Amino acid sequence: MSKIQWTNVTWNPVTGCTKISPGCKNCYAEKMALRLKAMGQAHYANGFKVTLHEDALDRPLHWKKPRMIFVNSMSDLFHEHVSDEFVFEVFRTMGHCPRHTFQVLTKRPGRMVSIVSKMRTNTPTTLPNVWLGVSVENTDYLSRIDILRKINAAVRFISFEPLLEDVGEINLSGIHWVIIGGESGPGARPFNIDWARNIIRQCRGQKVAVFMKQVGSHPIGWDMDQSNFVRAKLKSRKGGDPSEWPLDLRIREYPRVEK
Predict the structure, then answer these.
(1) E strand or H helix at 179, and its extent?
(2) Is residue 259 situated within a structural domain?
(3) Given a cut of 70, is residue 39 above it in pLDDT?
(4) Digit-coded pLDDT (tens) for 118-133
(5) 46 φ/ψ angles, rounded to the nearest 5 degrees
(6) Residue 160 contacts residue 181 (beta carbons within 8 Å)
(7) Is there a domain that residue 104 lies in?
(8) CB 167 within 8 A of CB 195
(9) What DSSP letter does each residue of 1-53 carry, written as one string?
(10) Three-state DSSP class for residue 193
(11) Could you say which DSSP state residue 75 is in?
C-alpha cells in the first residue's frame, strides 16, 4: 500500500526522470531510487536513469480487489525518453482493468497532448477509470493547466505540490480535482498555509473537489499578526496529519465520477 494519502497503491512500469522545473529540486523519487539501488533492488539498478520495465506492465491485471493506482510515482510517463509505444502499452493495461482507477500525473503536459493525439482507436485515452493530471508549483507553470484542459479525460486534476508560492487567481474550468501539499524532507522549502487557503477558496467558488495532502516539513503562518510568520511545530514529520492543522484545512475530497 502507498503512503501517499490520495491513492491506494503505486505502479511503476517506468522508473527514473530528469528535473525540468523548481518543483523537482528536492525530488523524493530520486532519493528513493538511489537508496533502492544501494539495497540491490533490480528495478533500480540504473538508479534514477529513465528505465522501462516491461515485466511490470501487467502488474495491475493481477490485483483483483479494486484499487486507486498512482501511475509512475517514481517517474513521469510522458518523459521524452519513454517511447510512444510503451505509453500505448501502459494505456492498454489500464483499459483492461476497469475495476481500478488510475491516476497519471505529469510535468510534461505538452508530450501528454502529443501522445493522446497519436493514440490508436484500440488504445483509448478517454477511459472512465483513467485520471490525467499536471503538477504546478508556482505561477510560472500555471500554463500546464491550460494544456491539460485540451485533453479529453474522465477526470482532469492538478497537484499543487510542492506548492512554492501563492499562485493567485486560477482558472479551474474543466478541472475536476485539486491536490495541495507543502514540501517535505531535508531542505524542504517553506509552505505558507495561506497559499493553500487561497486555492481552497477558489475550488469552493468553482465547485472543484480539493484534497489537502500535507503542510510539509516547513509550514508557516499559524501564529500570524499581519507580518510575523511563525513556523509550526508538528509531530507529523511531513505535516500529513490533519488533526494538527487548522480546521479549515482539513479537507480531503475526491471528484465525483460518472459511471
Answers:
(1) strand 177-181
(2) no
(3) yes
(4) 875 445 556 899 999 9
(5) -95, 10
(6) yes
(7) yes
(8) yes
(9) --SSTT-SEEE-SEEB----SGGGTT-HHHHHHHHHHHTT-GGGTTTTS-EE-
(10) helix
(11) B
Can you say how many angstroms the Cα of residue 201 is from the centroid of all Cα atoms in its chain? 21
Q: Which DSSP helix (H) or strand (E) runs through 191? A: strand 191-192
* 257 in any annotated domain: no
131 in Cβ contact with 153 (< 8 Å): yes
Q: How many domains does the chain have?
A: 1
List the end-to-end C-alpha distance of the chain, in Å, as a whole number.
Answer: 25
pLDDT of residue 2: 81
Which residue, among 111, 160, 115, 151, has the nearest Cα to 132 in the 3D structure? 151
CB 169 within 8 A of CB 217: no
Cell, residue 95: 483499459
Q: Which three three-digit cell numbers place residue 252?
A: 480531503
Confidence label for 228 from pLDDT (cuts 50, 70 and 90): very low
Average pLDDT, the chain: 92
Angle between helices 109-118 and 84-95 (to 10 degrees): 70
The DSSP annotation for 115-176 comes to: HHHH--TTS-S--TTEEEEEE--SGGGTHHHHHHTTS--SEEEEEETT--S---S---TT--
Domain of residue 189, residue span:
9-249
The three three-digit cell numbers of residue 100, written as one number: 481500478
The pLDDT, as a whole number, for residue 224 is 42
Query: Nearest-5° angle of CA 106, CA 102, CA 75?
Result: 35
Q: What was the pLDDT predicted at 232?
A: 60
* pTM for this entry: 0.93
Residue 119 in domain: yes
